[in-house]
Amino acid sequence: MLKRATLFSVLAGLHAAGLYALDLGNTRTDSPPQPAPIVAILVPPQPEPVVAAPQPQQRPVKPVSSSAGHPAPLPPLRQAAPSSHAPTAPAVEPTQTAPAATSEAVKEIAAAPATQPLPPGPVVPPRSDASHLQNTLSYPPVSRRLGEEGKVVLSVYILPNGTVGELKLKMTSGFPRLDEAALEQVRRWRYVPARRGDEAIPFWYTQPVVFSLEG
């Protein structure tokens, strides 16, 4: 009886151990599996294959015959016979032409001397001493009091109407006051213009101006 009880206890313990082992196996089996790591690798792009462009197909050129470019000539027209009812144009009388110049007339024309321009006449210089011009010269009072005197020479460009167009000092008197007085007064003078024949012309004229205390 004791042996049976002991055997039963051993069997019960083995059974319990088997159940425990079974539960432990189930517990390990039911745990979710761990995902495997993902490894990415960069792959360089492959070059695309070169495809040659299709060549255009050339159409055969048909030879053109020479007769196609040049049509056949038309047959000549036949001239119809003149009709008896067609109007007739009046006859034209020949015109008489003028007689050609004789060789003697041609010789006379060729022997005639060519006209040459007449030489220009002598130039008459201008004048400033005409009474109707009323050109006066006044002595500067300061120069008279200081005893300044001398001769001023001016270059005067006289226009065809007798007025002074341009004035330059050609030679000084040695006193600026006398030079300025001569320039200022001669600029207002009037002249009888220079002439070539009957034509008044512009002319550069040398005009002396004398300042003297004795005069």
Structure description:
- It is a single chain.
- The protein is an alpha+beta fold and 215 residues long.
- The protein contains 5 helices and 6 strands.
- The strands form 2 sheets. A 3-stranded antiparallel β-sheet has the order 1-4-5, with no helix packed on it. Strands 3-2-6 form a 3-stranded antiparallel β-sheet, with helices on one face.
- The model has no long low-confidence stretch (mean pLDDT 73).
What percentage of residues falls in helices of 4 or more residues?
25-40%
List the uncertain runs. none
Query: What is the radius of gyration?
Result: 69 Å
Average pLDDT, rounded to a whole number, is 73
Number of strand segments: 6
Structural class: alpha+beta
By DSSP (H or I, 4+ residues per run), the number of helices equals: 5
| Largest sheet descriptor | 3 strands, antiparallel
Shape by Cα distribution: elongated
How are the strands of the biggest sheet laid out side by side? Answer: 1-4-5
- Proportion of beta-strand residues: 15-25%
Distance between the termini: 197 Å
SSE ordering: HHHEHEEHEEE
